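Hey, weird one. I pasted the Secreted protein sequence into the form twice and got a warning about non-standard characters only the second time. First submission, copied straight from the form history:
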Amino acid sequence: MPYVSSRARILAACSALVVALLAVAASAPLPMTIAQPGDTADVLGRYQSTQVITVSGAATRGTAGQLRMVTIKATGPDASVHLLDVVEGWFRTDRAVMPTDAVYPGNGSPQQIARQNADEMKQSQDAATTAALRYLRLSPARVNVKLRLADVGGPSAGLMFTLGIIDKIRGDGHGGDLTGGRVIAGTGTIDASGAVGAVGGVALKEQAAKRDGATVFLAPRDECTDAKASLPAGLTLVPVADLGGALDALDALSTGRPLPSC
């Protein structure tokens, strides 16, 4: 029998222990969430066979082009995310690895999180409707706007809802479409006064927009740095701070004027 030194035996034992620990670490769930580009939806058209924007009490017009709201999808708060998932996510540009608490604060149950997302979506829709009708100088007592986007939550579609309502009712004010026939995507919250706010996940949303045919991406000005750093080739980034700025940018696209930049 060959002689095995004490040092070799110790190294072999330590190596076996390290392998065992790595195997346990690789199989243990981590408090992390993996996000990736989600669905997009043209707010001027239908989503899951349902018209997204319907208006009564005011004349509407046919539209061309698309105004696409964008989403990200993430593993749920109870999902099992392991070390190998995290390592893979770090090396992929179409994935983002984040602490679960940052994505789902408060340690709420999936049902509570779903209710919160639905509440934020409802508030976003109400603010979008108010901002659009104020811009159009229409009374909410006479004009009824319904927004339907099944299975999508959160506040980040506010800007695109507002632009969609305006395009449906008035267009660009000169008989044309806000889009100029383009596929335009975007993200951003909006409040009743028309201020556009940051939403997060802009890099993944740009990828979703590019994947679904957009050539222009409207992003909150507060997210310029992240949006510019991760911009896919062939997608024009347009930063906006408020509704007026977004409408001016769309007009600049149609007339060939310079666009705002980061």
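That's the output from the first submission. The warning seems to come from a hidden character in my clipboard, not from the data itself. Residues 98 and 248 are 35 Å apart (CA to CA).
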